[in-house]
Amino acid sequence: MQKENIQLTSIRGVLALWVVGHHWFYSIENPILNHFFGYAYFSVDIFFILSGFILSKIYEKISFINILSFYLKRFLRIFPLHLFSLILLTAIVVSPSFQFEFNFDYLSSIFLLQAFHDLNAINNPPSWSISIELICYFLFPFILISTNKPSGKLLIIQISVVVLASFFTQQYFRGETTGLGAAFRGISGFLLGVFVSKLSNRLTLNNYWSNLIQFLSILLMLLCIISSGNLGGFYKAKNVIAAEIAVSENEKIILEKLNNKAPLIEIAILMDKNDISVSRLSAITGINKTLIQKNYNSLNPDGKYYSIFNLFSNDFFQYFLPCNFIPFISAIFILTLYCNKGIITYLLKSSILHFFGKISFSIYLLHYLILVLFVKLEFFNDSGIQDLNLTFIYITIIMLIVLLISSYITYKFIEQPFRKILK
Q: Of 46-55, 280-289, 402-411, which range is least confident?
């Protein structure tokens, strides 16, 4: 077993908090927060890469003899906390009557089958990713054994294929949390992590190159986010249309795409094609007009997004967003962090970030139920749209305190005991 790589643990904490912001700030009428946290679903894609990378380093030599032991360890690593968080979420949702239907969908949620179909039952939304993670765990021993000690040329080919798969996955399944798209997201990211970890055995970086690549990676990811249009507000399209508002077939297509987390720039292209105004879309979705207008203004007179990819007429390139590069860039970033050099590596070794990293799994699984609890306690206004005022900032601070304390408790009394049992 390899010694803990503290900076990779810490980056999990940063990613988990980004996901928290994704769900917490989605209803804030602030374009900057909408934009930045709108892309936080990429945290999950990076989680998959990290998972593949770290497991590959830990189990570089694995035989068929200990596969069952590996499966048991991984299942018990995630299932106890998942079950606890689901039971607690259920109690919060059904209170004070405590009446709910224990049906097949709820059973599917218990046994982490939520990524395979939409559930008509109480479930903890973030747990879709650990449902996919189980698939990756099942495949992992076979991946590792079949790709053991590849030659340099073969490794380059393998990484190239996986990178291309990652691009196409982000293009067609960006943000998917159920079905085939979710599986492709998880498996492509996991494979990218596995193969990049093999590259780390052949790579040595000094401080200069580590700093350069790490800073460039962060800069490129920020540029990808800035240049891909504002994703803020796409959740508001869900369940916001009043029953008396009639919508056309073309508008229904746009609403369906919004509910499937299509970026607003893609929606703007469809608006242009179908002659749907900014005001009309805002009226039927509840999305802020400014957010829609900003993305609509990014179109040229031919209804195409300003991008180097528009040199091609194919729809693939017309809708190809720079954010599709984020998983690949993050894989390079993770690779340089593992080399244990550079200023960012040093910062990530701080005790506070390491603490966040250690409790990151608890943060990830508990944050949504705490959000539901705050809604039940009526901390928010009835419209669901929040102003970024002093009251909301206070509520956010309280939420973070509750989340961190709760996450530490579950880490201490659920995660750690099971880890000790498995040793």
A: 280-289
Distance CA 252, CA 368 (A): 29
Sign of the Cα torsion 172, 177, 181, 186 reads positive
Give, in order, the Cα–Cα distances in Å from 11 to each of 55, 201, 222, 379.
16, 21, 16, 30
Angle at 203 between CA 202 and CA 205, to 5 degrees: 160
Report which of 38, 30, 26, 43 is spatially closest to residue 262, judged by C-alpha positions: 38
pLDDT at residue 375 above 70? yes
The full DSSP string for 372-418 is HHHHHTT-S-TTS-B--SHHHHHHHHHHHHHHHHHHHHHIIIIIHHH
Task: Tell me the helix, strand and coil percentages in the chain, rounded to 5.
Answer: 70, 0, 30
Tokens of 418: 């099971």
Nearest alpha carbon to residue 26 among 40, 16, 13, 15: 40
Question: 304 falls in which pLDDT band (50, 70, 90)?
Answer: very low
- Sign of the dihedral defined by the CA atoms of residues 329, 35, 287, 43, in that order: positive
Straight-line distance from the first to the last Cα atom of the chain, in angstroms, rounded to the nearest whole number: 11
What pLDDT, on the 0 to 100 scale, is given for residue 295?
56
Q: Which residue, 176, 263, 261, is CA-closest to 228?
A: 263
**Of 259, 267, 261, residue with least CA distance to 298:** 267
Token pair recorded at residue 298: 């990014």
With H, G, I as helix, E, B as strand and everything else as coil, classify residue 28. Answer: strand
DSSP 115-173: TTS--SS---GGGHHHHHHHHHHHHHHHHHHHTSS--HHHHHHHHHHHHHHHHHHHHHH
Q: Which of 244, 255, 151, 165 is nearest to 198 (CA)?
A: 151
Contacts of 178 (CB under 8 A, 6+ apart): 114, 115, 116, 117, 118, 128
Round to whole Å and give the CA distance between 106 and 235. Answer: 23
Task: Name residue, tokens 């609403």.
Answer: 255
